[in-house]
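[Solved] Which block belongs to which protein?

Original post:
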Amino acid sequence: MQAFRVAATQINVKNLALADNVQRHVEMIGKAVAAGCSLIGFPELSMTGHNGSDDIVRDAQTLDGKAVEAIAAEARAAKVFVSFGMCELFRGTHYNTQVLVGPHGTVGIQRKVHASTDEFFHFRQGYEWFVYDIGIAKVGTAICHDSDFFESWRILALMGAEVVLLPHAMRKMNTPDGGLSFDGEGVDMPAAAVLAAQRQMIEPPNAKYHDIQARTNGVFAVFSDQVGFDGRSTHVGAAYVIGPDGLFISTAAPSIEDAMIVADLDPDVLATVRKGPWYLLRTRRPETYGQLTAQL
């Protein structure tokens, strides 16, 4: 791994507004490049949106489509790596897919393995994990609910990941009457709903669990979340970067606006952690874990 700067974003991904969402990516990439970043992480389904309705698949894209190419062109021109999310149309079905593009085009994809609640009705689940060596680091991805499973972190770490991207679209479910379950706030008060949810959080979403997993597996963790009202549902937002020692390197202030944070990733920190006595991947005993692969 080399020393480099990463950007984590929170953005308001609008419902059924593909062109606007792509432009939002382009603008944020420009800001990240100006800040000296080599890798930019966007939230889950950051191109096509996430609201739990049938709309979630209506802007579905193929990997060779114009929307993907628009972002890939920015990455090529700036010689940076960009991770973004979309509803992928592949072989007649849909996947919740995170795409990684770079200076030479598409690097690879990660399809979400663990569908959450409403996603079962819209997406087929992925069956493989991928870690990509992009030169400056080996990068894996755990999309939202995927990161709730310690097995996701462990398999990526065992595959060589040094950085784990955590794209999220955390939201509250719509209630049957069309309102939102943010302290009873309705769709007519989306900003108040987001702020109410953020006030309930002592720390950013999943931060404590991600902290433990980053430290346990000896990886950098880069969290990016959707934020604000997308025209149908509301997302709580957040962006942060955690080191392999479990320390937060950078965290976005609570906000309902688009935001970007940057963090410098130090390979010496990674090396120190992985040489230490608490780097559990060196002392684990997989011959005793056979039951872990059994389904209840």
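(Second protein starts here: sequence line, then its structure tokens.)
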Amino acid sequence: MAASARQDGPVGALRLRLLLEAPVATPDGLGGATVSHETVAAVWAQVEWLSGGEHWRRGRPEQIATHRITMRWRAGVDAGQRLRDGERVFDIRAVFDPDGSRRRLVCLVQEVSP
């Protein structure tokens, strides 16, 4: 096994294609803004479920799942952005480079579904 494969994990581990999206605020003409998201990049990633639960939001219960998403290292990924897999949306809460080598980027995310 090559040294890079040992450090980075199995070659096929990053097999899910996700869209990285950044928020874009558009003035609404009334002093506020409407926030939408635009695609920044498509990335190969691995999604691992961490925990789940339920909480109330706006008078209704929502299911919350937290995940760890690992991708190849890339600059410019921040909390506040999100990752998308079709209809599934993962809000990025924290981003870190686990060993400082700029090989992998780990995002702790929250997926909310009504």
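Accepted answer:
You had them paired correctly. Confirming on the second one: The helical segments are 3-8.
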